[in-house]
């Protein structure tokens, strides 16, 4: 499976039916920061914190499919090198 990327977060946001502006407002980021993360501007993914990803997930998870939930969880665990217990 491909490495975690901004495209994964963008897909999650779109599946949740949110605009970049709506998501940014809900998680306390600027729309420009959401754009940078989704488009993987230099360093944006490398500097991504687990808190930002957690907030992104908390806003989007209610409306995405079970398949998306499982896939996203797996990607995040690998990206942050977290052991699933």
- Look at the structure and give the CATH class: Mainly Alpha
- Supply the CATH superfamily name: lambda repressor-like DNA-binding domains
**Gyration radius, rounded:** 12 Å
- According to CATH, the fold-level topology is 434 Repressor (Amino-terminal Domain)
- Give the rounded overall mean pLDDT: 89
Total strands: the figure is 0
Q: Which term fits the overall shape? A: globular
The percent range for helix content is 55-70%
Structural class: mainly alpha
Oligomeric state as shown: single chain
- Biggest pleated sheet: none
How would you spell out the order of helices and strands?
HHHHH
Approximately how much beta-strand content do the residues carry? under 5%
Domain module count: 1
In the CATH hierarchy, what is the architecture at level 2? Orthogonal Bundle
Query: Which residues form runs of ≥5 with pLDDT under 50?
Result: none
Terminal CA distance reads 21 Å
Number of helices: 5
GO molecular function: DNA binding
Protein name: Helix-turn-helix domain-containing protein
Pfam family, one: HTH_3
Organism: Thalassomonas actiniarum
Question: Could you describe the 3D structure shown?
Answer:
With 85 residues, this protein is mainly α. The protein has one domain (6-79): lambda repressor-like DNA-binding domains (434 Repressor (Amino-terminal Domain), Orthogonal Bundle). Helix content is 60%, strand content 0%. It has five helices and no strands. It has helices at residues 6-15, 20-27, 31-38, 50-60, 66-79. The radius of gyration is 12 Å and the shape is globular. 15% of the residues are buried.
């Amino acid at each position: 499976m491909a490495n975690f990327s901004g495209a994964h977060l963008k897909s999650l946001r779109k599946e949740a039916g949110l605009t970049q502006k709506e998501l940014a407002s809900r998680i306390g980021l600027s729309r420009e920061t959401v754009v940078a993360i989704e488009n993987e501007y230099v360093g944006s993914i490398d500097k991504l914190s687990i808190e930002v990803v957690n907030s992104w997930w908390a806003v989007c998870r209610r409306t995405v499919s079970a398949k998306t939930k499982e896939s996203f969880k797996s990607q995040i665990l690998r990206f942050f090198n977290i052991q699933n217990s």
